[in-house]
Automatic annotation (TrEMBL):
Main enzyme class: transferase
This protein's name: DNA polymerase III subunit epsilon
Assembly behavior: DNA polymerase III contains a core (composed of alpha, epsilon and theta chains) that associates with a tau subunit. This core dimerizes to form the POLIII' complex. PolIII' associates with the gamma complex (composed of gamma, delta, delta', psi and chi chains) and with the beta chain to form the complete DNA polymerase III complex.
A Pfam cross-reference name: RNase_T
Active-site residues per Swiss-Prot or TrEMBL entry: H156
GO cellular component: cytosol
Cofactors required: Mn(2+); Mg(2+)
Listed EC numbers: 2.7.7.7
Organism: Neisseria chenwenguii
Length: 238
């Protein structure tokens, strides 16, 4: 399995790639070992058709705006996008939509589809519905749930949505997130850590030690926190 992951989002002229709608913006942010690598691709694309008013109200991209940005047609940037995505795990919110548009655009050019590029796809919408059944699973709702600041998201935009998705995905996949949150709630209620407040319950907990890969991911996360890492300070004082 590849350790190269890409947070991906697109904006389009509408909802239906098989009925004449086209892609107008692409963004991808690369991550490896739960750290953004700095490698990214962000492109505006001229759809070579009109822009419906309802679509422009969502993302703010009119044909005039795209022409001001000298946005090229997809035929001029499709290969660059395909090369950027090749072999990566794509992390997308509502993946069916974005993959459908990319595959349509690639097929128009005679380029390989997402599947043929050797990509795997992780849909955070499906993840959220599994984690929080019956609750809202939009990107905005998940930002609220995980306290991700979305104040800069005035309009939908592929790049800002990728950045927000990255933060949400890391929160969703941080294995100790719920356990730590539960412990904090226990402290507020009893004034004691959960382990002290209910020793009988803790006696029945099954302890599963981290494997080598999980330990390495944990150390990499602590490294990213730098000198302010409380965990490392406590270890040094122990």
């Amino acid at each position: 399995m590849t350790d190269r992951q890409i947070f991906l989002d697109t904006e389009t002229t509408g909802l239906y790639p098989d009925s004449g709608d086209r892609l107008v913006e692409f963004a991808g942010l690369e991550m490896s070992n739960r750290q953004l690598t700095g490698n990214s691709l962000h492109l505006y694309v001229h759809p070579e058709r009109d822009m419906p008013e309802e679509a422009a109200r969502v993302h703010g991209l009119t044909i005039a705006v795209l022409e001001e940005k000298n946005a090229p047609p997809f035929a001029e940037v499709g290969r660059e996008i395909a090369d950027f995505l090749r072999g990566a795990e794509l992390i997308i919110h509502n993946a069916k939509f974005d993959v459908g548009f990319l595959n349509m655009e690639f097929t128009r050019m005679g380029l390989p589809t997402i599947e043929e590029l050797g990509c795997t796809v992780t849909d955070t919408l499906a993840m959220a519905r599994d984690m929080f059944p019956g609750q809202k699973a939009s990107l905005d709702a998940l930002c609220n749930r995980f306290s991700v600041d979305r104040s800069k998201r005035v309009l939908h935009g592929a790049l800002i949505d990728c950045e927000l998705l990255g933060e949400v995905y890391l929160a969703m996949t941080r294995q100790q997130f719920d356990l730590m949150g539960g412990a904090e709630e226990e402290v507020e209620k009893t004034g004691k850590p959960a382990a002290v407040a209910e020793t009988k319950r803790s006696a029945h907990l099954k302890v599963i030690k981290a494997d080598a890969e999980e330990s390495a991911a944990h150390e990499a996360y602590l490294d990213a926190l730098g000198d302010d890492c409380v965990w490392r300070k406590e270890e040094a004082e122990a």
